[in-house]
Amino acid sequence: MKPQPLILRKDQERRLLAGHCWIYSNEIDTQATPLKGFAPGQPVEILSDHERWIGHGYVNPHSLICARIVSRDRSHPLSPALWVQRIHDALTLRERLYKRPFYRLVFGESDGLPGLIVDRYDDLLCVQITTAGMERVRGEILAALEQVIRPKAIVLRNDTSVRELEGLEQGVEVVLGQPADSLTLIEHELEFEVSPLTGQKTGWFFDQAENRSRLARYGVGNRVLDVCSYIGAWGLRAAALGADEVLCVDSAQPALERIIANAARNRLDQRVQTKRGDAFEVLRDLRAQGKTFDTVMLDPPAFIKRRKDEKEGAQAYQRLNRLGIELLEPGGLLVTSSCSFHMNRDAFLRAVQQAARRAGRSLQLLETGQQGPDHPVHPAIPETAYLKTLFLRVLPDF
């Protein structure tokens, strides 16, 4: 059956024709196509006000982003064949990039599959569905993944709060195989035990892998501080590069226990220590104790999750970075990240610069990193360029 049309208001197609795929509810001509006439996840044909065909997509009348374009080829509507082709295309890129099958296999809009995230841990796939449109074709998506990848296990990690915005339930479900909540991942020749069923996100942060590899060129010195360390990816990398003392800070005790285990696995346990606590409080305590470090790495969760939180979030980034900068030896390395897509690179750098000024220090920006190529950026969708990692040298005030 032919999908129903979804008609835009006058002059609302320009951004879509430029390549963006999100359609907001206030861009719809609700006189011509009332949103209440659509079911969540229903496939639609998107048309301009003068009936110019724009693309195949799906709609959710209850969401601010009420529709997403999936295909711009009129002869290729939403179908099992389309899912297979898109997943095959995504796999082709990752196999060009990585020797080992540990990576983000599907990155939503950037891979032409809005509302779908898939992380690959060799024979295990962790799948996250974030929109009603993808939820509606869940069975087709899972079948396509089985056909293309041939995994032994698939876990649905639908325990993200983003699903609430689409009116979807949260939960974790094993849909193929009997995976254990523990597996070994290899990054830069280091082994990490991760938890794909219960860990943060899907158990690992693949997006920072390329940035972690850049530590080697700068040298980390003897004393390193890793803040918001999760299970130790940054900290263990620093220890492997020769740091004698690495302190990993996180608020979650299970994460710290996993750091100790991962350090022992890589014979780095004599160099790695952990401390549990709120990042801001721990940094203040270290400052009060007169502690200093050669490298400080700050990789916090997103402080800006909604545009209205920009001011408060920018202040939080500034406070965290000031505390980190104050703990650095002159000439020390600051590696600081923001995964808030509402804060662009220039705004983040400005917040860090303001932090340095308040700390009475000067900065030299050495390099700017983003998410790795398994998280490709869609040139027309700035929201896909969410990760900023700055490598800075911190000096006494000029």
Protein described:
It comes from Thiobaca trueperi. Residues 172-392 form the S-adenosylmethionine-dependent methyltransferase domain. Residues 6-72 form the RlmI-like PUA domain. The protein has helices spanning 14-17, 80-97, 132-136, 138-149, 162-165, 209-213, 215-218, 233-240, 253-265, 279-288, 310-326, 345-358, and strands at 4-7, 22-24, 42-47, 53-59, 65-71, 102-107, 116-121, 124-129, 153-158, 171-176, 183-187, 190-194, 223-227, 245-250, 272-276, 293-298, 328-338, 361-369, 388-396. Helix 10 (279-288) runs parallel beside helix 11 (310-326) and helix 11 crosses helix 12. The protein has three domains: 4-71, Archaeosine Trna-guanine Transglycosylase, Chain: A, domain 4; 80-176, 2-Layer Sandwich (Transcription Regulator spoIIAA), CATH 3.30.750.80; 183-396, Rossmann fold, CATH 3.40.50. The protein is built from twelve helices and 19 strands. The strands form four sheets. It has a seven-stranded mixed sheet, with helices on both faces.
